[in-house]
Automatic annotation (TrEMBL), chain A:
InterPro entries: 5'-Nucleotdase_CS, 5_nucleotidase/apyrase, Calcineurin-like_PHP, Metallo-depent_PP-like. The keyword Hydrolase applies. Belongs to the 5'-nucleotidase family. It comes from Neolewinella aquimaris. It comes from the Bacteria. This is 5'-nucleotidase. It holds the Pfam family Metallophos. SUPFAM superfamilies: Metallo-dependent phosphatases. One of its GO terms (biological process) is nucleotide catabolic process. Residues 34-251 form the Calcineurin-like phosphoesterase domain. GO terms for molecular function: 5'-nucleotidase activity; metal ion binding; nucleotide binding.
Automatic annotation (TrEMBL), chain B:
It comes from the Bacteria. Pfam families: 5_nucleotid_C. Residues 85-217 form the 5'-Nucleotidase C-terminal domain. GO terms for molecular function: hydrolase activity. The keyword Signal applies. Residues 1-27 form the signal peptide. Keywords: Signal. One of its GO terms (biological process) is nucleotide catabolic process. This is 2',3'-cyclic-nucleotide 2'-phosphodiesterase (5'-nucleotidase family). The keyword Cell membrane does not apply.
């Protein structure tokens, strides 16, 4: 099989960038190009961290994030903004207002979709449903079954976004709640195997929905010493998933990681720490164009 | 947008696979160029943009309500409190405050020790300087109640072994526990644990109800305090005599994997 490098090196030496790269300063590109921005585990960190001499003092803050996102949107045509869960819990804003402000601000920032983290149940499943009333973006989960719960009509397995002809299929996967979240908080939510549901959903997005790019918003965690299912485990067992935007383990990856899937094709995994300290960005192009990129497809056709 | 029932989905996908082939990207294989932005203090807020000012306006009434409560100074932190395993001064400080509170809340019971699950401490550090109510909310955002759990010595041993296998949890000074490989030894108030004796552990209800894989505590008798851990930490941190300077000498929890 032809091997290709899905993931290019980071734009500037793999290092961290303080300010957005003015990529669009050059001539207007004509090839299809998509910009994915993402956060995870932002944990109600609305204000920057307090000026207390701690490691994260004065860092983060939702207005800075919004300003950066706005700037990128001015430079790029096809921006998608995602969050991988644990929006709630971590500052008094959550204790006092139960996530109402977080949902309003994510709506104002123009989030396109998010998935559910374990802490998003902290106010109870009814509260999550109530607060989603302040959100105009979809909550995605393909492996939590909310039948008979207040979330049953508010959570979808996936969404397909069409960005100037680029079809992007996005779905969510959540962590096992038993032993992690008190049962009284998640109620009748049923957890299903993320690998099985992830592969089913990705196949559906690839074949039925004809997606060019398939993105998983995961709150499974980056990886574990045990056999517990994680983004790395999911990627290795997956087919049809191109990108996993992860969360839960608060992992600061300075560079996304690639893991070969069940067919030997690379899957990108990224995670950007927690508390809105970082914003991740992936610029996706389709350099091979047309059908040429469809390696060995003909062999599979009947 | 609604996914069909999984079995019927699997069947329909199998058919789709045969009919359509596996590769339906019309654009070809994607390539990704990553970038990373640090949301640092060097990054400005675009106060000229209406979308940003409207977010400020959204936050403002919520922030005003919180400020009055959160900016109260409880004490002065002299030595930074750092979270770590197997033992840390942040963990020791927290667990000792919970033990103090448990002595006051449950005077008729003899406390074995107080424990806090490691993952329940939600900051890595509390820096030196004035300790604000908001920092305790950051440390302990969860609405967990402090409860007393009644266990046998054998249960206590199983629970402490679990915390050691999990890398070591914050415990009050009453407990000393050591794990060498799979060999675990422990004392409560300097005495060996008697498997048949009854002990009382002060813990978050989250742990007492089996959270953080503490299944061995499920179903044990619980004595409720009616007080949230966070509120107790605020109350007892506020009673600190002089600046807070807590050590961690590694005498409470020792772990070696040989």
């Amino acid at each position: 099989m032809k091997r290709r490098s899905f993931l290019q090196q980071a734009a500037v030496g793999g290092g961290l960038m303080l300010l957005p790269d003015l990529l669009s300063a050059g001539p207007r590109r004509t090839e299809p190009r998509l910009t994915i921005l993402h956060t995870n585990d932002w944990h109600s960190q609305i204000d920057p961290f307090p000026d207390d001499g701690g490691r994260n003092a004065n860092q983060g803050g939702v207005l800075r994030r919004a300003s950066l996102i706005r700037q990128i949107r001015q430079q790029e045509n096809n921006v998608l903004l995602f969050d991988s869960g644990d929006i709630f819990q971590g500052t008094p804003y959550f204790n006092f207002f139960l996530g109402e402000l977080e949902m309003k601000l994510m709506t104002q920032m123009g989030y396109d979709a998010a998935t559910i983290g374990n802490h998003d149940f902290d106010g109870g499943i009814e509260n999550l449903a109530t607060q989603l009333g302040h959100a105009d973006f979809p909550m995605l989960s393909a492996n939590y079954d909310f039948t008979g719960t207040p979330l049953q009509d508010r959570v979808e397995p996936y969404r397909v976004f069409d960005k100037q002809g680029i079809r992007v299929g996005v779905f969510g996967l959540g962590i096992e709640l038993k032993g992690l979240v008190p049962a009284a908080l998640y109620g009748k939510t049923t957890y299903h195997d993320p690998v099985e549901r992830g592969n089913q959903t990705a196949l559906h997005l690839r074949t039925r929905q004809k997606c060019d790019l398939i993105v998983c918003l995961s709150h499974l965690g980056y990886r574990y010493r045990s056999e517990k299912v994680s983004d790395v485990v999911l990627a290795a067992a997956s087919r049809n998933i191109d990108v996993i935007l992860g969360g839960h383990t608060h992992t600061f990856l300075d560079q996304p990681v690639t893991v070969d899937n069940a067919e030997g094709k690379p899957v990108i995994i990224n995670q950007v720490g927690f508390a809105g300290l970082r914003l991740g960005r992936l610029d996706i192009t389709f350099p091979e164009g047309g059908e040429r990129g469809c390696v060995a497809c003909n062999n599979l056709r009947v | 947008m609604i996914l069909p029932h999984p079995r019927s989905l699997a069947a329909s996908l199998a058919v789709a696979f045969l009919l359509l082939g596996s590769c339906n990207r019309h654009l070809g294989e994607p390539a990704a160029a990553p970038q990373l932005y640090e949301i640092s203090s060097a990054m400005g807020v675009d106060t000229a943009a209406p979308s940003i000012t409207s977010m400020e306006a959204t936050i403002q009434p919520y922030a005003t309500k919180l400020e009055a409560v959160m900016n109260r100074v409880l004490a002065e932190v002299e030595t930074p409190l750092l979270k770590g395993q197997p033992e840390s001064n942040l963990g020791n400080w927290t667990a000792d405050l919970l033990a103090l509170a448990a002595h006051d809340l449950f005077p008729e019971y003899e406390l074995a020790f107080a424990v806090q699950n490691y993952g329940g401490l939600r900051v890595s550090e509390i820096g030196a300087g004035p300790l604000l109510v908001s920092e305790i909310y950051g440390l302990m955002p969860f609405d967990n109640e402090l409860v007393l759990v009644e266990v046998t010595g054998a249960d206590l041993r199983a629970f402490v072994t679990h915390t050691l296998l999990d890398g070591g949890w914050p415990v009050s000074a009453n407990l000393r526990a050591e794990r060498q490989g799979t060999e675990v030894t422990m004392t409560v108030d300097g005495k060996p644990v008697d498997d048949t004796q009854t002990y009382y552990i002060a813990a978050p209800d989250y742990v007492a109800n089996g959270g953080s894989d503490s299944a061995m505590l499920v179903g044990k008798r619980q004595i409720s305090s009616g007080k949230m851990i966070r509120d107790l930490l605020i109350e007892y941190a506020g009673k600190s005599q002089g600046p807070i300077s807590v050590g961690s000498d590694g005498q409470r929890i020792k772990i070696s994997n040989q």
